[in-house]
Amino acid sequence: MAVERVKDFFKDTDVNVIELPESSATVALAAQALDTEPDQIAKTLSFLVDDAPILVVMAGEARTDNHKYKATFHKKAKMIPFDQVEDYIGHAP
Length: 93
Description:
YbaK protein, alpha+beta, 31% helix
């Protein structure tokens, strides 16, 4: 389970992993569950660059800037299809 892997990763640090009883699957749901604004939520987007997965973490309401993406990765932004994310990243979106 992904949560257990995250907890194990942070076990020897000062990071406190919070598990919510309600869904936090979207930025809006996470903001609601934590009683905060959507831009206070970090979201992770999964892309493929030459068949290798990369993760981009950004503010909840931010959008991918295609020009900056291409300048950084030298490729057009190509998100991993929803049904393939778990295979590439190791957990479901």
